[in-house]
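Entry type: protein chain
Record version: 2
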Amino acid sequence: MPMALDPNAQDLLFREARTTSAFTGEDVSDEQIQEIYDLVKFGPTAFNQTPLRVVLVRSDEARARLLPHMSDGNREKTGAAPLVAILAADNEFHEELPELLPHFPQAKDLFFAERPVREHSAGMNAALQAAYFIVGVRAAGLAAGPMSGFDHEAVQREFLDDDHTPLMIVNIGRPAGDAAFPRSPRLAYDTVVTTV
């Protein structure tokens, strides 16, 4: 049975999409990011908790605050990217649960009263949403360069607070000509999937 998604869309989102390190100078607008969010917000999370929070680094001043906290290999490309997004987990996501889970508002206190439980759940579900975000960037015809190479504690102090944990930083824009490394191998289906 063929995939429901058109092969060209499959290529755009997966087969031809690449992590990008160099971008053209074309701007990424607030409207584009809004359209991306309006698509990816429908991706599932446990209890519909939606813990992902996004800080868009646009101004020269904010970029100057971010760059010293990037790993050496990520600093230059982050400085040159049209837009940089800090993706973080909101460890107090449970405060939104009565609105996000109206048929089960007691989940806020029943399951997420303790901070360590919230941190674990927020990290897992925000990471899931971060993956949706990257696919959404690709769906917009843009490219993403996600990175974990930065000083997480320093970025938290500089841009977030104690209730938000940075997960990754993503450079966003239109890819420059030969901006990606050759594709690395992937694991075979039978290495990953087991039927029991």
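Comment: The first strand starts at residue 52 and ends at 57.
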